[in-house]
Amino acid sequence: MKNYFKLFPQLGINSDYSKKILRRFKYALIYRNVINIIFLIPWVILLFEVMTKGIKDDGGAFFILGLATMFVYLPLITLYFLIRNRYEGHLEQIYFDEFLSKKLKIFYHIEELSDFTYEIIKDITKSANLTNNNMQALIFACQEAYALGAEGVFVVGNQQSAITSGKTDKRGKGSVQTTVLGTTSVRALKNIKEKPKNSISPDTKDLEYWFGLLEKGAITQEEYEKKKMELLN
């Protein structure tokens, strides 16, 4: 987990929205610390008593604390993780919107690259849980591209899948949880330069243009075949 409290000031992220989410994230951390302390102190006292006086007279106390941990502490700490994950998703989106997207040129369609020359650094594929942020895989990929010194990325593809877990009885009662997983592939680019205005823009409806991109390694064979079918039909 990133230390957003240090990271955001270092990157110059100081919008009102980022401050509000950071403040709520801080409250969630305080909530976690409070419930941990509340449940830790009785256990420390009880263990100290056991170590000094023996366990004979404290069996009931162990039982009560065990029940309290199971039925009170675990639901409370689970609530903390839900809150934390939600705000962490917001913070990741802020990190992308207010920093990464300003440092990187992001191309979502190959046609957008037709007005630029560029060099390919690396193909990057990242997977992530999209439950709290549906752009999380893209954020991870852009983060790695930026670390490699990329000036931009071309989003090659996105895939999503859902995993449902849990069970219900015949009356439909029970709990079911759906987790959305996603994979994003990007091509990290450097030396991105706009073509001279007097240069002739390539005809993206010409199959030769796409074959040229294939030969340069700008697109994959699968992408070329897909575009070929699209143009010929």
Report on this model:
The chain crosses the membrane at residues 29-48, 60-83. Keywords: Membrane, Transmembrane, Transmembrane helix. The protein is α+β, with helices and mostly antiparallel strands. The protein folds into three domains: 4-101, no CATH class; 105-196, Translation Initiation Factor IF3 (2-Layer Sandwich); 202-233. Helices cover 54% and strands 24% of the residues. It contains six helices and four strands. Strands 1-3-4-2 form a four-stranded mixed beta sheet. A hairpin with a 5-residue loop joins strand 3 and strand 4 (174-194). The relative contact order is 0.11. The model has no long low-confidence stretch (mean pLDDT 86).
Summarize the structure.
The chain has 233 residues and is an alpha+beta fold.
Q: How many domains, as an integer?
A: 3
Beta fraction: 15-25%
State the helical fraction.
40-55%
Give the total of beta strands. 4
Largest sheet: 4 strands, mixed
Helix run count: 6
Mean pLDDT: 86
Shape: elongated
Rg value: 26 Å
Order of helices and strands: HHHEEHEEHH
Q: Biggest sheet, strands in spatial order? A: 1-3-4-2
Structural class: alpha+beta
User: Distance between termini?
Assistant: 48 Å
Q: What are the segments in which pLDDT stays under 50 over at least 5 consecutive residues? A: none
Protein name: SHOCT domain-containing protein
Keywords: Membrane, Transmembrane, Transmembrane helix
Transmembrane segments: 29-48, 60-83
Organism: Sulfurospirillum barnesii (strain ATCC 700032 / DSM 10660 / SES-3)
